[in-house]
Design goal:
6 strands, about 15% strand, about 210 residues, transferase, alpha/beta, ATP binding, binds NADP nicotinamide-adenine-dinucleotide phosphate, six-stranded parallel sheet
């Protein structure tokens, strides 16, 4: 097969804190895989989220482990240690550059994350280069206002080349949220059917968010 005929790979990168991972995230990744004809989805738990210092955030290794437990049975899902092993804040631009280095030029990357994070991408580190390295898939829950996204499409004069490529994907299962799960655990309320069984068991075994 000639170089021209070689099929480009389509890689989904599911970026998030995953504190903890839940079924909303898993449904999002599966739907992106299907809608965007991705070859696989790499879950990328943030090491140190750039904009958070919250003490409720579990150590990166624990969030990584929970993500591995949740995705283990799906052959199209893998989990990366790239961000949790990097020191300093987890900037998406650094992750995308590393992935492009590892996978070579024949790869299209789709960065999948929550809409609340995506509409701020123009404020992320090195936004001008970031928007060239990936397309974005913004996952929303039904009823989410898309008003904010307009600013990504109407950029001030001279900045039009920074226009990000963003697709919106509505995911009903995103009514589930990590914040709600942490609160439930804290209040001894059930989390079965909101997270995979192994995730619920590990959270209980380690006593996360109890005090
Ligand atoms: P967040 O503010 O914790 O989450 C925003 C919203 O999106 C929440 O409702 C969250 O729900 C949801 N969400 C998060 N990840 C999701 C996913 N993969 N699929 C579906 N919904 C998701 O956002 P974050 O987790 O800190 O950041 C998201 C990604 O953007 C991370 O990869 C982060 O590194 C990247 N980011 C990069 C920069 C930068 O490079 N400067 C700045 C900000 C964010 P749950 O709470 O239920 O997950």
């Amino acid at each position: 097969m000639s170089q021209e005929e070689k099929k480009r790979s389509r890689l989904g990168v599911m970026g998030g804190t995953f504190n903890p991972i839940h079924y909303g995230h898993l449904v999002t990744a599966e739907e992106a895989l299907f809608q965007f004809k991705l070859d696989k989805v790499i879950f990328m738990p943030s090491g140190q989220p750039p904009h958070k210092t919250d003490r409720e955030i579990l150590p990166p290794e624990e969030r990584y482990l929970l993500t591995v437990i949740a995705t283990a049975s799906n052959p199209n899902f893998v989990v990366s240690r790239l961000e949790i092993e990097r020191t300093g804040p987890s900037y998406t631009i650094d992750t995308l550059r590393e992935l492009h280095e590892v996978y070579g030029p024949d790869i299209d990357i789709f960065f999948i994350t929550g809409a609340d994070a995506v509409w701020e991408i123009l404020t992320w580190k090195d936004a001008a280069n970031l928007v060239e390295l990936t397309e974005f898939i913004a996952a929303t829950r039904p009823g989410y206002s898309l008003e904010k996204f307009k600013k990504l499409h109407v950029l001030p004069e001279g900045q039009e080349k920074n226009k990000p490529r963003v697709s919106i994907m509505e995911i009903p299962a995103l009514a589930i949220s990590s914040t709600d799960i942490r609160m439930r655990v804290h209040e001894n309320r059930p989390i079965s059917y909101l997270v995979p069984e192994g995730v619920a068991n590990y959270i209980q075994k380690c006593g996360f968010w109890k005090d």
